[in-house]
Amino acid sequence: MSRPRALSGFPELSPEQRIVEQQVLDRLREVFELYGFASVETRAVEPLDTLAKQGEIDKEVYAVQRVAAEPGTPADLGLHFDLTVPFARYVLEHAHQLAFPFRRYQIQKVWRGERPQEGRYREFTQADVDIVNPGTLPAHFDVELPLVTLAALEKLHVDLGLPPVLMRVNNRLLAQGFYRGLGIEDTVAVLRQVDKLDKIGPDKVVELLTTDVGVTPAQAQACVRLASISSADASFVDEVRALGVTDPMLDEGLDLLADVVQTAGAYVPGRIVADLKIARGLDYYTGTVYETELVGYEKSGSVSSGGRYDSLASDGKTTYPGVGLSIGVTRLLVPLLGAGVLRATRSVPTAVVVAVTSEDRRPSATAVAARLRARGIPTEVAPEAAKFGRQIRYADRRGIPFVWFGAGEADEVKDIRSGDQVPADAATWEPPAEDLHPRVVPGEQG
Amino acid sequence: MSRPRALSGFPELSPEQRIVEQQVLDRLREVFELYGFASVETRAVEPLDTLAKQGEIDKEVYAVQRVAAEPGTPADLGLHFDLTVPFARYVLEHAHQLAFPFRRYQIQKVWRGERPQEGRYREFTQADVDIVNPGTLPAHFDVELPLVTLAALEKLHVDLGLPPVLMRVNNRLLAQGFYRGLGIEDTVAVLRQVDKLDKIGPDKVVELLTTDVGVTPAQAQACVRLASISSADASFVDEVRALGVTDPMLDEGLDLLADVVQTAGAYVPGRIVADLKIARGLDYYTGTVYETELVGYEKSGSVSSGGRYDSLASDGKTTYPGVGLSIGVTRLLVPLLGAGVLRATRSVPTAVVVAVTSEDRRPSATAVAARLRARGIPTEVAPEAAKFGRQIRYADRRGIPFVWFGAGEADEVKDIRSGDQVPADAATWEPPAEDLHPRVVPGEQG
C-alpha cells in the first residue's frame, strides 16, 4: 500500500482532537441522562424504501449491498442519513417493549452522499433527543426539548469553552393561524415563500406571494411583517397582536411559543429567542420548530435543529407524534478543531510514564505502573530502555506531564514541565487533579 | 408504514439492554485509557481494493454506493469488516502526525455480509487495542497486550458480573521453530494441518501431515504432540524441551510465550494459558497469537482474538509491525443479554420522577427537577398531571426508584419499592449511591 489519501467528506480526527470529541460526547450524554433520556442505537442500515420515501433527500442516500450479491440484483438497504427516520422505525418495530411517553437519546454516525463542500460531510455524528407517545403528545414537551438541548450546549460552553449558542424558535401553528386569520387558504404555499426571506429579502418575498401564491399585496405585507418579529422574551406576542389578526390556531401558537421562550430563557438565560421567520424547510414538522447557531460561526449553519412532528411514525393503526432536536456534533466541532479554537492538553490519556533504564528492570516498572493504575492513574511503561533525556522526550512529545524514575529501587517522579523531581511512593502518590486526565482548553486561535 | 420487521443479523438492543452495553463499553474504555491507549475512530468506509485484498474475507464485504450514482458505475467503497485493516490505513495516512510507538484503542461497529446464523452478526461492535511502531516493535508489547485486554475483561467480570474468560496464547515462532528443528521445511503447510486438530482429531492430522505435506510419521507425531501441550504457567517449556527438538527460533518462541503467560498470570491470575495448538487461521499474524473463550460459553467462539503482525501496514518505504487484540463486544454481550444472564436495574437513567398534580403546578415540578439535576441526580418531570397511583405506575414500569410529591409546596419523596415517604428538600436530598444510576445485575437466568 502506498500512502493512502484522505477521502473527501469523511473527516478523521487526530488522537488529540478525538479527546476533545470524546469529552463533548460525554457531556452531551451526561445532560441527556440527567433529563431521563434513555440511550438507543439503531442499526446503520434501513430498507431503501424507508429512506427513499422521505422525498428530496433520496438522492443523497448510500445504498449498501454485498459484494458477493448476484450481479444486477438491486440493492435493498441503505445507510441512514439521519437518526429520526431510523428512530421512527425503531419505535414502530419495538413498540410492544417500550414504555411511553418514550424519551430517547441517540448518538451515532450518519451518512449522506452529498457533494463534499465546506461544512458538509458525507459521514458525521449526530446527537438526537426525542420524545414520542402514541396518539397525542402534550405540548409541554415542546418546552422541555429546548431546555435539555440548551442545557447540553451550555455545558459544552461552560465546561469545554465552546462558543455559546443562540436557539431560534418558531411555531407553525402561529404562522399558519396568522395566515388563516388573514383569510389565506393555502398557508403551506405562503410558508414556502416566507422561508426564502433570508435568501432573497422581503421585497422579493412580497412579490412571489402576490404573483405565485395569489394573495393581496396587503396580505403579503402582513406575512412579511410577521416574519420580521423576534424577541428574547414573550414581548413578541404583543407585537403579533398589534398586527390585528385573530385566529384560534394563532392563539395556540402564540401561547406555546411564549411558554417555550420564557421557560428556556429562565433556565438557560440569553440562549433562546422567538424568531417568527424560522420555517425549517418543508419537512415533517407540524408545530414548534427549532434551529440553533453557534455565536461567531453563524455561517456554518444550524448546529442543532428540530421540531414537533405529528405523523412521522405510524403503523397504520397507531400514530406516534413526537418532538425532537438533533445536535450536529461534527458540524459543531470539526470547524472549531480545524481553526485551532480548542485543543486537548495532551494527545494521550496517560498521566505518567514509568521509565525503564534497562530491559531487566522492566518488571519493576510494570509493577509500579500496576500500582498507579489500581488507583485510577493512567500510566504507561516506557517503550524501550533508554537514558534520561529520551524518556523525557517520549513524554514531552505526547504532553504527558510526569515521568517516574527508579521504579522499585529509588522511586522519584518528575514533573517535566517544571523540572521538579521528588521522591514518591507508587502506593500513595497522586498527580494534581487537573493533570489526571487530558483537559480541553483554548487552542492557539481560541 | 406497517409494523417493520427486524433485519436478520442486525441486532438492536432494548433501552435496558443498551444500559448494560454502555456500562461494558465505559469500562473497556476506562481500562484502555488506564494503560495509556488513545482513542481513534476511523471512517466506516474504505476503498474496496483495500478491503478486498485481504483474501478470503472479500465475499463478506458490503459495497457502498450513492443511490444517485450513474447506473453501471462500479462501487469503489465498502464498509469496513474489522478495525485492523482501517487502522493500518489510518497509520499510513496519518503517520506524519502520530507519535510512535502508537498505542490506540478503537471501539466501533463493523459490518460483514455473512449468512446470519447463531452468534454471527452482520453488524457488530468491536473494541480493539493495538500498538504499532515503524521498523521494529519490541517483544515486551506482546506481553502488555494480553495484560490490558485481560484487565478489561476481568473488570467486566468483577464490576458487572459477566462470566470470567480464559485466554489461550501461542507463538508461531515456537511452532515453526519446532517444525524446522524437526527438519521440516514447509512449516506453513504443517501449521495449516495442525490448525484442524480440534475439528478432525490427532489421527486425521497425522494422516494429512504424512500424505499431504509429506513429513515422516515420526515428524507428524511430534507435531501433534507439540500441539497437545498447554499450561497455565511456564511448565510448558519443559514439556516442549522433553520432546528433544532444538532450534533458535523455537527458543525465542518459548521465551516469549513463557514471559506472556507468567506476566499476565501474575497480574490477572487464572485467566491465561499457553496452548500450543492455537493457530488463528492463516491470516496476517507472524508471532504471538491470542484467543479467548468466555467460561461457560465456549461454543460461542473466541470473544477476544489477536496477535502480532509484522507487515500489515507498509507504505513501500516503511513497515509498521504491530500487536493487537480485538474484543468482540456484540459476540460477548448479545448472547448473555438474550439468555437473561445480565440486566439493568432499570430501563432509564432516571432516579426520580417529580409528580405533577395539575398542569398549572408543572413549573414548580420543573423547578424541583432543575435543582435535583444541578446536583447530578437524573430526574424527569411527570408527563401528565395525574393522581398518585398513576404517577407511581409511571415510575414502577421503568424501574425508577423514587417519586417526588408536592413540588415546591410540601415536598416529599417516596421510595416506591419500600413505600417509605419522607419530607425532602430539593436542594439537599440525595438518593442512596446505589440508586443514583442504573446498575448491571444478574438477570433471572444469571
Features:
Rossmann fold, five-stranded mixed sheet, 2 domains, 37% helix, 446 residues, BirA Bifunctional Protein, domain 2, 19 strands, homodimer, alpha+beta
Walk me through what this model shows.
In chain A, a hairpin with a 4-residue loop joins strand 11 and strand 12. In chain A, helix 1 runs antiparallel to helix 4 and helix 5 runs antiparallel to helix 11. Chain A folds into two domains: 294 residues, Bira Bifunctional Protein, Domain 2 (BirA Bifunctional Protein, domain 2, 2-Layer Sandwich); 97 residues, 3-Layer(aba) Sandwich (Rossmann fold), CATH 3.40.50. Chain A contains 15 helices and 19 strands. Chain A is α+β, with helices and mostly antiparallel strands and 446 residues long. At the A-B interface, helix 1, strand 1, helix 2, strand 3 and strand 4 of A face helix 1, strand 1, helix 2, strand 3 and strand 4 of B. Strand 3 of chain A pairs antiparallel with strand 3 of chain B. Chains A, B: Homodimer. Chains A, B: Keywords: Aminoacyl-tRNA synthetase, ATP-binding, Cytoplasm, Ligase, Nucleotide-binding, Protein biosynthesis.
